[in-house]
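Render this sequence as a predicted structure.
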Amino acid sequence: MSKSKENHVGMSLRQISEGQLLKYTNMMKGWQNRWFVLDPRTGMLEYFMSEAERKQRPRASLHLAGAIVVPSEEDSYTFSVNAANENSFKLRATDAKERQHWINRLRVVAQAHTQVLAESNPPLFRDHSQLSSSNLSTSSAISASPHNTGPSQKMLSCNLTVLDAFSGVRDYLRRVECEHQRLVHDIESLPSSGSTTTCTDTEILILKATSQATLLCLEQCLAILHYQQQQPTKPVKVNSAGSSPLLGYSNSKKSMEFKQISDSPRLRSESAVSVLSDKNLSGAYSSDTNESSSVPVLDDESQYVPIAEESLSPIAQEMGNEEYKGRTLKLLSQLKLGTELTKVNLPVFCCEPRSLLQVIADAFRQPHLLLKMAKESDADHRMAMVVQWYLGCIRACHLEMTAARKPFNPVLGEIFKCIWNMKDEDSGEMLVFRFLAEQVSHNPPVSAFHFECPQRGLSVHGNLSIKAKFMGMYVGVALGGDLVLELPPHKQSQEGDTEKYEMTFPMLYLRSFLSEPWLEFGGKINVNCSESRSSAGIVFQTKPFYGGKPHQATAEIKTHSGNTAARISGDWMSGVMEMSWVNGQSESIDLETVGEWLEKKIRRICDQADDESYKLWHPVRQNLVSGDFQMATEHKRMIEERSREKERKRHNQGMSFCATYFEPNNDLWVRKK
């Protein structure tokens, strides 16, 4: 290439590129025309609503250092730009020629800025011993030369080997994902029963799960490789003039922004290291690794004080709603139908200021019916009271989640303890109800809980696991696990055994998350008592798309012979329901007047252990309530990183996690004796 042609190529690379492209926004808005501007000097790709708004502030931008530009296999017009910070643009040109023009320009700029970032921030796996002192001195002299204002020949050659390698792997993963979807479709098309191969055969289910796990593992490995390729280990070194990889020197504001973007991952990693090396963490881990089989003694109830329930302030609520609407659309545009949201790290503004363990505790703050059913002699009436109590627990949880926000995911080993005091109206005795919950598993997430009144010999125990999936226009939450209510022996009991009522949990649905989100329960659960042989079925009816009322439920109580004894129906959310017995009697049930909600008591934060929910999430809760979402996000990340570090240390030492208060018993977690 002649010198004049080389200069022409250099000048063309330095020029700003701009033009109109179609940008995919989300499922609601689809493809929209936007005016894009590519500035090689700053390495920024920006877009505006139209060309007329070019001199105004851009709607959004991506820095191309570490970015990957991938042409789509769907057609010859679409391509995507994936930045190192996980943001991306999905774009479409008017024809194949224009697409190739944009891809070439974007890759050149991305390669140039990536090389500068890589040279000043080598990856962790780079072997520095291969660099000779002569090479270092030569490169330092070249970079420090005041006459080195143009791009190097190596940079202009546009070596896209690394970028093309990542693009090729992503293309293969897309094909693998398509094959996986075909496999899932074929499996689900098989009959559910019969003499031939069915969709429920063990080998078929293992094949389906293995395919899904393999695909997920490959995607995570690629993400780790991409991250390590861009991961800096020391600050970016730029000269006083702020050199640009394509245009030498620049004093523009965007160059400083690029430096801040480059430094931010390093600062975040240093912050995480400082947290993990904190003495509090080492102390917490030392107590965790020296686990013993002994169960800690229960706290003295005199240590417990009333808890002040906290909620988002009006300002924080308004800020959260604005963030919720904007970020939700962005999040939905990146989700696929059936995506498991349990593995998605949702923004902190979507959370309510309490842990899931506290939500479970709030379900038991109305124990008046438990005392009444323990005194009831008729088995059918006891079963009817159990159904009323269960509906009251669901109602208590729902009222606490009226904002349709997600509680904090408990970290492994997290504990929540509280008590309620209530006076027995018959004897005048002051009763103590104790609640204990612990996160006993992280993958899958399982929360074990135990609720009891030792003075009356009644208890409730169980475990809850949550799996949420994105279903397009709503989110379906499967509440797995079991719930067991144990009542003391009644006077008519011949053997003197306790009565156990076993039940499960309904489905939970998040509706209208694009406008005004709201929650409803759906599905059928069964309540069984093997001692009295009575049973009940509760059906939570979901609201029809057109007409109908929300929060409707029906229940049918059956005797030991299988005959229907009574039916319950009505709006469980309002608390007003109707119970009709087969003998013609009917009565109105008001879950609101069963008994007032008891005041929950916990220990003071200064007396709590580091792994207790209220103390653990206190900084996140305080910032979330005040509306400081940035600090709340940072504290939440630190808590989760601390838990992951504990797990890594246990893994390196060949140890497994041992719950403090609970132990597995068949499919149920029970409290240690």
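Summary. The chain has a mean pLDDT of 76. The chain has 15 helices and 28 strands.
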